[in-house]
Amino acid sequence: xxxxxxxxxxxxxxRPAYYAARPGGWRDWWTLLHPPYTxxxxxxxxxxxxxxxxxxxxxxxxxxxxxxxAVGLAAHALDELNGRPLHTRIPSPALVAVTMVGLxxxxxxxIAGVVQVGPALVPFIVLGPVLVIxxxxxxxxxxxxxxxxxxxxxxxFPVLTAYVAQTGRLALAPVIAAxxxxxxxxxxxxxxxxxxxxxxxxxxxxxxxxxxxxxxxPIDRTVLLAPLEQAxxxxxxxxxxxxxxxxxxxxx
Length: 252
Fold this sequence. Notes:
Elements: H1 26-32, H2 35-50, H3 57-81, H4 92-117, H5 122-136, H6 147-167, H7 172-201, E1 208-210, E2 216-218, H8 221-251
Antiparallel strand pairs: 1-2
Helix pairs in contact: 2-3, 2-6, 2-8, 3-4, 3-5, 3-6, 4-5, 5-6, 6-7, 7-8
């Protein structure tokens, strides 16, 4: 029997992400949601909210929904509109509609939050859509479309917003936690950038690693992707579990 084809090396095309489903139908919508990354950034919302002296479950759920609309739906739909990096077959009008519904839902929940929390939440409601649109369309000279912009937008920002949604003010603890979320998002970007390059833009991989004691280890797509994507999987699960632990501790 012959050797099975290597994805991207003359066999079937590689999936655009390790969590991507086979193209077509509802599977495209699953892929569009970027489930591990969406859950990862929603975990920052839980962490920020659980740092508050008293956690209001209704406000926490509303904040989670707002960020799901903004990041899980709007930001990811805009990203797919820009060059189809996930290779989905979702019609462009549907992606535009999802973007509009996502942003409208996030803003609507934010406005409802102002009624409960007060004007301290207003800057976050204004900044949220600016970050979504500015990052994906590379506005302001692309100043947001980089590692720092991503880490600030989807790492630090959810933590701070969730805390303010609970308390109507900022404090030292959420600022420190936002710095931690920023740093973890930098790690995410550092790992995912080469992984995307290998999966989406590499036609073949050749070479070997020469060992000091003699012998060689062949280099292929799997060898390069394995440590990157295993780290991303572990980090996404780890952050979600830490957030779940905080929620159980504060809400029991």
